[in-house]
Amino acid sequence: MKLILMVAFASILLTWKMQLVNAVDRLQVPMTLVRNASALGAYCLDGSLPAYHLHRGFGAGASSWLLQFEGGGWCNDIKSCLERAPTRRGSTRHMSKYESFSGILSNNASLNRDFYNWNRVKLRYCDGASFAGDGKFDNGTSVLYFRGQRIWQAIIQDLLPKGLAHARKALLSGCSAGGLATFLHCDNFTSYLPKNTSVKCLSDGGFFLDERDISLNHTMREFYSQVTSLHGVEQNLDKNCTRLRYFPQQCIFPQYSLLYIRTPFFILNSAYDVYQFHHILVPPSADPHGHWNRCKSDPAACNVDQLTKLQGFRKDMLTALRYFLLFSRRGGLFINSCFAHCQSESQDTWFADNSPRINNKTIAEAVGDWYFSREKSKRVDCAYPCDTTCHNLIPAPLSTADLPDM
Asked: DSSP characters for 282-296?
C-alpha cells in the first residue's frame, strides 16, 4: 500500500512538473487593438481594427524589441477575400484574444536564450496580402479593405511611444506570409528607428520561389500577380526592384527584392518547404489525378522521378540564394533539408534537445550567432534524406481553397 502511494505521489509530482513546463511553454499574451488605426484608414479585410500581442521585456532586454509578423496565406480574388473576411484571417473580431508565445517568442531563458527578455510582439495578420496592400473594394453590397500597408504603419506608430522609438536592438521577423512581409518591410522598419539601433531582419519559411510547377506552368507567379493587382501591392514594392524588372509585380518574390535590401538579413527556410512543395512545385492544378498524394504525405513514398523533381527544386532554391550566400557580408542563412514550413515559432524546431541541426547548430543558436555577431552563420544542409535531425512536419494534402490558412 505504501509503495502504491509513493508511486501515485511520484506520478502526481511528474504531472505537476509537466504542467508547469507546458505552462511556461504556452505563455498566453493578451491582444491589443490599435485604437488610432482608423485615423490612418488601417482596417482588416472586414473593417475591424488591427491588433498585436505585446509581452514586455525586462532586465538587459528591456530596450530590445522583436516584432513577429503572423503568417496565414493570401487571398487573390474578391471571392476568396470575401470568404476570408469573416474569419480569423480577415478580422480581429474572430481572432483569439490571447496568443501563445513559444520558440523565438518564448520568455523562458532555457528555451530562447538570446531573445527571452526582449519586448516581443506578434503582429496579427488580417489583410490577406502580407501587410503590403493599399486599396478598397466596394460594390454597394460588400466592402473589403485592402489596407495591409496601413496596418503595418498603424502598429508601428502605436509601438513607438511604448518604447520602440528608443530601441537599442531590434529584430523584425515573420513566418510564411509573415516571412514574406519581412522581406517587404525590412528597410522600412529600419527607417522608423534611431540610427544607432542595431536593426536586423529574419524571414522564416518566407522565401517563396518564382518556380515552374511540374506541368511547367508559373502557378505561383500568376497567383502572386493576382494578389498584387487586387490589393494594390505594387506601389509598395521596392522601387529599385520594380524600376529594373520588366514585370514589376515580380518584385513580391524575395529572390528579386533581396538584392536591394540594405538591412542585415537572415533567411531560415527548408529546401523542401512543404507549402512550396504542395502549392508551387505540385499544386493541385498540376496533379489532377493525385499521383503525388502519397509522396506529399510521406517523402519516403516518393518514386525516383518525384525525388528527382524535389532535388531539382532544392537546387533552384540554392541557385536563387547563391549571390546572397557568397557575397552578403552581414547576412545569415539556415537552409535545412526537413519537410517543414515555419520553424522559429515552434519550440520543437527552434530550440530543444532534439531540434533540427546543421553542423550541430540548432536554428536558435544559428540565428543568435548571426544577430550578435558571435560568428558567421551561413549553413546549408546536405540533400534529403541525409539529415537525421529533421522534424518532417507534413500536413494532409491541401486544396487551392486552403491556401489562405497556411
From this structure: S-GGG-TT-TTHHHH
Q: Which residue is catalytic, options 134, 213, 238, 273?
A: 273
DSSP collapsed to 3 states, 190-226:
HHHCCCCCEEEEEEECCCCCCCCCCCCCCHHHHHHHH
Give the separation between CA 126 and CA 48, rounded to whole angstroms: 9
How far is residue 227's CA from residue 207's CA, in Å, rounded to a whole number? Answer: 17
Which residues does residue 361 pair with via DSSP β-bridges, in sequence order?
358
- Residue-by-residue pLDDT tens, the chain, 406 positions: 333 333 334 333 433 433 444 444 579 999 999 999 999 999 999 999 999 999 999 999 999 999 999 999 999 999 999 999 999 999 999 999 999 999 999 999 999 999 999 999 999 999 999 999 999 999 999 999 999 999 999 999 999 999 999 999 999 999 999 999 999 999 999 999 999 999 999 999 999 999 999 999 999 999 999 999 999 999 999 999 999 999 999 999 999 999 999 999 999 999 999 999 999 999 999 999 999 999 999 999 999 999 999 999 999 999 999 999 999 999 999 999 999 999 999 999 999 999 999 999 999 999 999 999 999 999 999 999 999 999 877 653 333 333 434 3
Name the active-site residue from 185, 231, 279, 341. 341
State if pTM tops 0.70: yes
Q: Distance between CA atoms of 37 and 104, rounded to whole angstroms?
A: 27
Q: Are 120 and 68 in contact (CB under 8 A)?
A: yes
Among 176, 270, 337, 377, the one annotated catalytic = 176
Residue 176 annotated as catalytic: yes
Which run of H or E residues covers position 347? helix 347-350
- Active-site residue flag, 231: no
